[in-house]
Each structure stands twice: as structure tokens, then as C-alpha cells.
């Protein structure tokens, strides 16, 4: 690559044309922060590695659609949207797998990293109120608050319409007000 500091959007255009060096550079710049954000949502390193690989396979195959779908959007946002959707898919697949009997193993429960962070930063009462929310409301709060996604990005991540995201966010805020009020 002649230019050492190409912006991500330019790199994506080059990747769309099959430029392997541009793909390597895009991966080098973005895989570390994507892995960190994925680990915030999933403590399983195996799933995170699988999702990261799936994300970049998708980027390689679909880089040409970036400029069509996101003419003024950020490449980082597009990459995170792909990664977040792949994570949701991986977690759904994992949830459908039959449980392996673990009668001989002691039960160990490890809270998700994001739950620990929420408890530490927002206090016990708020953390407890959040944990009492329905799972679909928790998913919206995690996406919009912890991950900083927009309504549209959350809609894409969770695979639900934007109106549903807005309704769930409103329900979550109302439930939290009532629980803390």
C-alpha cells in the first residue's frame, strides 16, 4: 500500500475491489477494538474469536455494499454493526444447542463483564433494577447505553423494527423509574 494512513472508508473501497493489502490494514486497525467491544458483551473468548472471524469474512464479501448502504456513514459504525449482528447470531446458536450434562461439575456462575461494570458504576439499586428488567428490555438498554448504538443500529443488532426498539427503551426507562422512584 503506498499511503500508510488511508482512512477506513477508502480502505473499504479498496477491499471491495479485492485489495488484500487494504483488507490486512483494515483488519489490523479495527480487529483490536472490535474484540474489546465484543468481549464486553460476551465473556467467551471462543465465541468472540468466531464472531471476529465471521465479521471480517463478511467485510471481505460485502465491502462493496458499504458505500451503497452508508454513503455518509462511518466505516467503524458499519464494522460494529456487522460484528454485533454476528454476535447475536452466535449467541442464539449457542442457546439452541442442547445442554451437556454437568452433574459431576460444580455450578459456577460468572456475571457478564457488562453487568459487573454496570453494578460498579451505577450502584447497587440501579444494577438490581436493571437485572429485573425483561431480557428484551435489557438487550435494548445494553445496546443503546453500554454500546452507544443508535436506535437504527440497535434495531439492526437485535433484528427488530426501530419502533420496537423505541417502545422497549421507553418501557425500560419507565420500569427503572418505578423501581427506583
UniProtKB/TrEMBL annotation:
<keyword id="KW-0805">Transcription regulation</keyword>
<protein>
    <submittedName>
        <fullName>Sigma-70 family RNA polymerase sigma factor</fullName>
    </submittedName>
</protein>
<dbReference type="GO" id="GO:0006352">
    <property type="term" value="P:DNA-templated transcription initiation"/>
</dbReference>
<dbReference type="InterPro" id="IPR007627">
    <property type="entry name" value="RNA_pol_sigma70_r2"/>
</dbReference>
<dbReference type="InterPro" id="IPR013249">
    <property type="entry name" value="RNA_pol_sigma70_r4_t2"/>
</dbReference>
<dbReference type="InterPro" id="IPR013325">
    <property type="entry name" value="RNA_pol_sigma_r2"/>
</dbReference>
<dbReference type="Pfam" id="PF04542">
    <property type="entry name" value="Sigma70_r2"/>
</dbReference>
<dbReference type="InterPro" id="IPR039425">
    <property type="entry name" value="RNA_pol_sigma-70-like"/>
</dbReference>
<dbReference type="GO" id="GO:0003677">
    <property type="term" value="F:DNA binding"/>
</dbReference>
<dbReference type="Pfam" id="PF08281">
    <property type="entry name" value="Sigma70_r4_2"/>
</dbReference>
<dbReference type="InterPro" id="IPR036388">
    <property type="entry name" value="WH-like_DNA-bd_sf"/>
</dbReference>
<feature type="domain" description="RNA polymerase sigma-70 region 2">
    <location>
        <begin position="26"/>
        <end position="97"/>
    </location>
</feature>
<dbReference type="GO" id="GO:0016987">
    <property type="term" value="F:sigma factor activity"/>
</dbReference>
<dbReference type="InterPro" id="IPR014284">
    <property type="entry name" value="RNA_pol_sigma-70_dom"/>
</dbReference>
<keyword id="KW-0731">Sigma factor</keyword>
<keyword id="KW-0804">Transcription</keyword>
<feature type="domain" description="RNA polymerase sigma factor 70 region 4 type 2">
    <location>
        <begin position="125"/>
        <end position="176"/>
    </location>
</feature>
<dbReference type="InterPro" id="IPR013324">
    <property type="entry name" value="RNA_pol_sigma_r3/r4-like"/>
</dbReference>
<comment type="similarity">
    <text>Belongs to the sigma-70 factor family. ECF subfamily.</text>
</comment>
Amino acid at each position: 500500500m503506498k499511503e500508510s494512513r488511508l482512512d477506513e472508508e477508502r480502505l473499504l473501497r479498496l477491499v471491495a475491489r479485492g485489495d488484500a493489502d487494504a483488507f490486512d490494514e483494515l483488519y489490523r486497525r479495527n480487529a483490536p477494538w472490535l474484540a474489546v467491544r465484543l468481549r464486553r458483551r460476551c465473556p467467551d473468548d471462543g465465541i468472540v474469536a468466531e464472531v471476529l472471524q465471521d465479521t471480517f469474512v463478511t467485510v471481505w464479501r460485502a465491502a462493496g455494499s458499504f458505500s451503497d448502504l452508508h454513503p455518509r456513514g462511518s466505516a467503524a459504525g458499519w464494522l460494529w454493526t456487522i460484528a454485533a449482528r454476528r454476535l447475536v447470531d452466535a449467541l442464539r446458536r449457542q442457546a439452541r444447542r442442547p445442554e451437556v450434562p454437568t452433574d459431576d461439575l460444580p455450578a459456577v456462575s460468572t456475571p457478564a463483564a457488562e453487568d459487573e461494570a454496570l453494578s460498579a458504576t451505577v450502584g447497587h439499586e440501579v444494577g438490581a433494577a436493571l437485572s429485573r428488567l425483561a431480557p428484551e428490555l435489557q438487550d435494548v438498554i445494553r445496546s443503546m447505553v453500554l454500546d452507544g448504538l443508535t436506535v437504527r443500529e440497535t434495531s439492526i443488532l437485535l433484528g427488530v423494527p426501530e419502533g420496537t426498539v423505541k417502545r422497549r427503551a421507553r418501557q425500560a426507562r419507565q420500569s427503572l423509574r418505578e423501581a427506583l422512584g
